[in-house]
Amino acid sequence: MPTLIEPIDIQVTSRRVLDERLEAAVIGLREAAMLTGTHGILITRNRPGHYTVALSEEVPFGTTRELIR
């Protein structure tokens, strides 16, 4: 059984840094998703400058979705 990967929390004050960190998080989680073939990636904007990137069984494999709270 695959190990569940913990969500990645991102806190930034600049758009450039946000883009870099989101890209790095998605690349890392994409590799983990490839091992299971069952989860997509969900990026949640919790509030300005605060994001969570996680594998989600609610997102189809091979897909990345954004959610704004």
What is the gist of this entry?
It is built from 1 helix and 4 strands.
How would you explain this protein's 3D organization?
With 69 residues, this protein is α+β, with helices and mostly antiparallel strands. The protein has one domain. Helices cover 32% and strands 35% of the residues. It is built from one helix and four strands. A four-stranded mixed β-sheet has the order 1-3-2-4, covered by helices on one side. The longest helix is centred in the middle third of the chain and has 22 residues. It is globular and about 35 Å long. The mean pLDDT is 92.
SSE map:
Blueprint: E1 8-11, H1 15-36, E2 40-47, E3 50-56, E4 64-68
Parallel strand pairs: 2-4
Antiparallel strand pairs: 1-3, 2-3
> What does the average pLDDT come to?
92
Helix content: 25-40%
Instruction: Tell me the number of strands.
Output: 4
What structural class is derived from the secondary structure elements?
alpha+beta
Globular, elongated, flat, extended or rod-shaped: what is the shape? globular
Supply the number of structural domains: 1
How big is the Rg? Answer: 12 Å
Question: How would you spell out the order of helices and strands?
Answer: EHEEE
Low-confidence spans: none
Q: In what order do the strands lie side by side in the largest sheet?
A: 1-3-2-4
Largest sheet: 4 strands, mixed
